[in-house]
Every structure is written in C-alpha cells, then in structure tokens.
C-alpha cells in the first residue's frame, strides 16, 4: 500500500501551519503503511544560506562538535541544529559542496538525507505520529511539503529505505507503487554519473527526475518522461524548490485524490487525508487522471 | 424522576437513527446495522461526518434507507443486500463492491472499481466514475450520469452498465454477457468488445434503467450498445502461439 501526501500553499498566511497541516494529513493515513515515515518541508527562502539535512544512527557521537569540526575543515562558519537522529547544517550557498565533503570525511557514518536552499527532510522507521513528534514537524513553517508512510514491499525497512528520496538540490519524491525496470534505469543513471545510496526502486525514480531536470527539462516535462521511461505502478508526488507535481502511471491502480482552493493544492492517497484542511467542503476535489502530469509552481 | 414525554418518544421512534462518526466508532454503526432484524421499525438511518471512512454500511441485509452526509472511503455499501444507501458526497474505491440487491446512489464522483463483482441491485453515480467501473460485474445495474474511466466492465459477466457521458479506453475488455450502453464516445474498445444493434428490447430495458436512476431529458435511442463478440469463448488453436 503506502500512503502519500503533498501540500502546496498558495496563501502565504498558511505558511506557519504547513508543518501541522502536513503532519495531520500523513497521520490520517498511518494504516496504509506502519513501517516508516518521512516528510520533506520546503521552508521560506532566506537567500543567503543553504541547508544539508543529515542523519546518524549514533547522533550523540556524530553530532558532537560537528559545527566546529566542519568550520575548521572548510574555513567558514556553519551552524548545526540537531533534531533527534537528524540535524540541519546551514552554511553559505557557495560552501555547500565543501560542507558535504567535510561531513563525509569527518563523520563517515553520517547519511545525507538531502540538501538545497530550502528543503529539510526527516524520515525514520516508525509510525507517522512517532516520526512527526520526534522531529517536531508540526512547528515547521514553509511553502510546500510532501510526506510518505511506508509499507515496504521490495527493499529493507531502514531509515535510508524510507521516503522522501532526494537526489538533487531541493528535489525530492514520494512514491506509492513499485517499479519493475529500476535496475536497468539505475545502471543507465550511474553511467551518467548519478550516485545512489540504496537498492530502492523509488530512489531511481527520484534520480531519473533529477537527471531529466539537470538536462534542462522543467518539472512538468521531467514527469512526462516517467510515463515512457519507468515501468511499473506509481503515483509520484514531487517537490522542487518552487514547484509541486503529481503523476500516475497509465494503469493507475494506486489511489489518489486532489483538492484545490484559493489557499492551497493538496494531494492524498485517500480523501481521509484531506478532511481536516481548511475549506475542504467547498474545495474542488478530483481524482487525478492516469498518465497525466499535474504541476504547480510559485 | 423526569416525566416521560410520550408523544416526543413516539416521534423519535419514527425519526432517523443518527450515527455521528465524529462521536462514535464505525464498528458501532455497522454492528447496529447488522443487528437489524426483519420488520424492524428502525428503517431510516443517517450517518454524519464520514470524512472518508472505509467500509461505511457494508453488509446490510435489511430494506432500510441510509443517508451518508459526506464523502466516504473504500468499499461503502459493499455486499449490500436490500438497503437503499445515498452518499451525499463522493465515494472512494470499490463503492457497492459485490452488491447483491437494493440500491446505492452517489451524489458526487466515485473512485475506481465502482460496483465491482456486483451481483444485483442498482448503483447510480451522479458524477463521474473513474477506472475499472463495473469490473467483473455479475448482474448489477450501474448508471453513471457522467463519464467512466479506462478498463471499465473488464470481464463483465452479466448486468447492465449505462454511461451518459464518455467511456475511457479498453471498454469491456474480455466481456462475457453484460450489456454496456454509452451515450458519448468510448475511448477504445477492449478485446472482444464490439458495438451492437439496439433492438426494441434493449431500448425498453435501457429506458427502464434511466427511469429508475432518475435520469430525465435523455432518450434511450441516444446510446450505443456494446457487448461481447463471443470470439474468446472457446479455445482457438490458431492462437496457440500467443500463449
């Protein structure tokens, strides 16, 4: 099964509530997948900093003095905000690659969840409510976000196997379904120079989109490509720095419901996920068509 | 002890029995419906705040009316045997799955596989139905005021599917003896599904279905009938290479 949600705000007044709205949406779908859960939140752009979300199975050891150690290695200031097993490292945008290299050299057990100007990604084994509480997602503000609760079918139940998957700056993806040609596509993307952290099929879909966008396609065009290049069952919900997209495979057996008002565009695997949103009773609610790309940009 | 207001108590015995799913669990509703016995006076039921709940009013086997005020999730009215359910909202996947008799009316849209495997009764979707509407239907009548999605009536065995709008791709793939009436266009026809002549008995059958579904201003003659070419019924040795 799996449950996926997405929320793209049009009304800036709702931004302080993004984390709590998205959390409630995801928690309502807990029985679609109890294995692990994750959320990506796109914060308000500040213009002068970039962020890397990192994770460690031993946070007390790995995050201690990490800010000072990275600063010393790269010769520039960084900040590290720890949230349970995750931490967000902030630095100047020009230093982002240096910070990434320094983390890998200084703390080889740290895993990088994602990076970009605005995105923060939190994912762990456990129920959505546990994950949301652990990372205090409800208090997070932002412009848009996506979430996933997982019932694993084809790779291990681990933190790294949880969604969202991020394979490019400020890009991430959640997936309900399973891909059948992911090994082939992964090999092709590795040849292009893409790097993979897991054996997971969804990571391949994320990397495919990152590759397409790196070749100059916009989000809509990249999503269009999944219909011919990826084989299997999928409903994808995707976030970029300023965009939000949805696509379903042509068979479309994985469920999907969308709602749009003047204040937001929302996606849920089921209508249950949308019932607490403001103004839902008067929203335009529809089932996205198979093999049809939907996307919105700020 | 407060005095009992007899006239009020009598009124209430004839009023709807109201279940607010914001206040009580779904199992309470379904158990109360299953506890109904023939001849019960509790013939009118109302369900508030369904908010996408799964399995609302499944397996009801008494001729009661059930008004669901809002949208439901998976399998609303599944296995219905005699009750008249109205969903004042939209329905999730599998509304009326395996219905035996009675009726289900959805005022909004229905998600995939509406009326799947249904054996009897009438399912009316006043909005659109998505993919696989009437898949493997076995005697149910389905009337959709809007459009239906792809692979509808896949392996449909008997019963009638009426669509006032358009049908998606692969309509009636591998169909047996169900009748499909489409007023708009079909995206494409599935294997062994063909357009068929509309004879007087089909016009009469369709008109009766339209009347029972509350459809007005639409003539039976505006529809095209689709059904089985019956070329898949028997093994054809010339197809052996395909397996």
Automatic annotation (TrEMBL), chain A:
One example GO MF annotation: glycosyltransferase activity
The keyword Ribosomal protein appears for this protein: no
InterPro entries linked to this entry: GATase_2_dom, Ntn_hydrolases_N
Protein name as catalogued: glutamine--fructose-6-phosphate transaminase (isomerizing)
Reaction equations catalysed: D-fructose 6-phosphate + L-glutamine = D-glucosamine 6-phosphate + L-glutamate
Annotated EC: 2.6.1.16
PANTHER family in alphabetical order: GLUCOSAMINE--FRUCTOSE-6-PHOSPHATE AMINOTRANSFERASE, ISOMERIZING
Lineage: Bacteria, Pseudomonadati, Pseudomonadota, Alphaproteobacteria, Hyphomicrobiales
Domain Glutamine amidotransferase type-2 positions: 2-298
Alphabetical keyword list: Aminotransferase, Glutamine amidotransferase, Glycosyltransferase, Transferase
Transmembrane segments: none
From TrEMBL, chain B:
GO MF annotations, alphabetized: oxidoreductase activity
Location of the Glutamate synthase alpha subunit C-terminal domain: 61-193
Pfam families in the record: GXGXG
Organism: Mesorhizobium prunaredense
Listed PANTHER family: TUNGSTEN FORMYLMETHANOFURAN DEHYDROGENASE, SUBUNIT C (FWDC), TUNGSTEN-CONTAINING FORMYLMETHANOFURAN DEHYDROGENASE 2 SUBUNIT C
The protein, known as: Protein GlxC
SUPFAM superfamilies, per the entry: Alpha subunit of glutamate synthase, C-terminal domain
